Amino acid sequence: MTTHFIDIRLLPDPEFAQTHLLGALYAKLHRTLVQLDASDIGVSFPRYCLQPRSLGDVLRLHGHEGALQRLLATDWLRGMRDHTELTPVAAVPLQTEHRRLQRCQFKTNAERLRRRRARRKGETMEELREIIPDHVERRPDLPYVRLRSRSTAQAFCLFLRLSEPQAEAVEGEFNTYGLSSTATVPWF
């Protein structure tokens, strides 16, 4: 149950862009959630905005008080303390909406999709142009955080979609990015 929260605000930095700092912060959180095998901590970005597309400068962590204290007991913010301001663990306000924050994946490059399928299935590029036409490409219009895969070392964008507000909370588990396809987080 997400009864408590912590806000982590990024401080302005003349040397690093806010998006770079957010990516570093989120990557550290992800690695720590993997190490803790935590499925009880969710995330939100209270300043999430579609126009202009931005996640803002605050990462909010949600969970029960014990889960958040367990996270804070690790030194996961090492190297980020000069770039962040952390609030103490606090109770979620009583009257609040609830939302779901989910990852969205897009087919953004038809040529890359064709090359990948050619490696897997051995089809020719002519065949693949018919199977995967250029119009399958979609230009993402959602806010994102740029991360690097630990397993492949490739950079990728984690696009995030925010659901419409819901009056009631929905229980569920969160993945190691603090996201869920079913569970909601308080939105305030």
Any overview of this molecule?
- The protein is an alpha+beta fold and 188 residues long.
- The protein has a domain at 4-97 and 164-187: CRISPR-associated endoribonuclease Cas6/Csy4 (Alpha-Beta Plaits), CATH 3.30.70.2540.
- It has helices spanning 18-36, 65-73, 110-121, 125-131; strands at residues 4-10, 42-44, 49-50, 53-54, 58-63, 84-86, 90-91, 97-99, 101-104, 144-148, 155-162, 185-187.
- Strands 1, 2, 5, 6 and 7 form a five-stranded antiparallel β-sheet that branches.
- Strand 10 and strand 11 form a beta hairpin.
- 23% of the residues are buried.
- The model has no long low-confidence stretch (mean pLDDT 91).
Provide keyphrases for this structure.
25% helix; globular; Alpha-Beta Plaits; three-stranded antiparallel β-sheet; alpha+beta; 188 residues
DSSP helix count? 4
CATH topology group of the domain at 4-97 and 164-187: Alpha-Beta Plaits
Largest sheet: 5 strands, antiparallel
Please write the CATH class name of the domain at 4-97 and 164-187: Alpha Beta
What's the architecture of the domain at 4-97 and 164-187, going by CATH?
2-Layer Sandwich
Q: How are helices and strands ordered from N to C?
A: EHEEEEHEEEEHHEEE
